[in-house]
UniProtKB/TrEMBL annotation:
Source species of the chain: Candida verbasci
SUPFAM superfamilies in UniProt: NAD(P)-binding Rossmann-fold domains (SSF51735)
Keyword annotations: Oxidoreductase
The UniProt record lists the keyword Oxidoreductase: yes
Higher taxonomy: Eukaryota, Fungi, Dikarya, Ascomycota, Saccharomycotina
Family: Belongs to the short-chain dehydrogenases/reductases (SDR) family.
GO molecular function: oxidoreductase activity, acting on CH-OH group of donors
Descriptive protein name: Short-chain dehydrogenase
């Protein structure tokens, strides 16, 4: 199945896993609409690199937060204005982690985590369901910690967990249109998202729990996302755990 000429909207699409996914999909001839929240210079540089390497596709970038429902609505409106043939794939990478015991979590932290991991994901899936072309695909990134029995991650695990159920419900509701809806749950990933939120000794411990004594790499996960858009299109309502045995 060729994906050439189709279009993907990717949140957090200019760095880390989002950037790796963008490159992989560009190689399939997929046009890209990439959301980013900050660092305009880096996003523009990434767009230029993609456009040079893959001159046969159209790449657009768009700066916005996705903290509110109407920001998600505008995201899809702008994307459709840039790509009049419509959108085929929607991939959401947005997330935030706080690691601390329940008794230390503040209301402010809870609210911020709710917006980053739960609310934004729900309204992204809602807008994708409304706006994607038939026979498309929606993929949301969650976490392999959903399969872990640990302390200190209550609000991260707890506020990522609903995304599985939004996706299951959406997969049922969108079957008649041929749209698959899945989640991907990576292990601890070798990006600044993890390195900046965990003490060094924790990062070293995570390495010992996976195949090859290493962290999950973005290059481990991006092909799984592509698989769900292409050869694995028959899969829907599922969470793909990919952690090298971490969980």
């Amino acid at each position: 199945m060729s994906l050439q000429g189709q279009t993907a909207i990717i949140t957090g699409g200019t760095k880390n896993l989002g950037a790796e996914t963008s490159k992989l999909l560009a190689g399939e001839g997929i046009n890209l609409f990439l959301q980013y929240r900050s660092n305009k210079e880096q996003a523009e540089r990434f767009k230029a690199e993609l456009s040079k390497e893959f001159p046969h596709i159209q790449v657009e970038i768009y700066q916005t937060a996705l903290d509110k429902a109407d920001e998600n609505t505008k995201l899809f409106e702008v994307a459709k204005s840039k790509f009049p043939k419509g959108l085929d794939f929607a991939i959401n990478n947005i997330g935030k982690v706080v690691k601390k015991p329940i008794v230390e979590v503040t209301e402010k932290e809870f609210d911020e985590m709710h917006i980053a991991n739960n609310k934004s994901a729900f309204f992204f899936i809602k807008e994708a369901a409304k706006n994607l072309n038939d026979n498309g695909a929606i993929v949301s990134l969650v976490t392999s910690l959903l399969a872990a029995y640990v302390g200190n991650y209550a609000i991260y695990q707890g506020l990522k967990a609903p995304v599985q159920y939004y996706s299951k419900a959406a997969s049922q509701e969108l079957k008649s249109r041929g749209i698959s809806v899945n989640t991907v749950a990576p292990g601890p990933m070798n990006t600044e998202f993890l390195i900046n939120s965990e003490p060094k000794e924790a990062v070293e411990f995570y390495k010992t729990q996976a195949i090859g004594n290493r962290l999950t790499e973005v290059s481990d996960i991006a092909p799984i996302i592509k698989f769900l858009l292409k050869d694995g299109k028959w899969i829907t309502g599922h969470t793909m755990f990919a952690s090298g045995g971490f969980t």
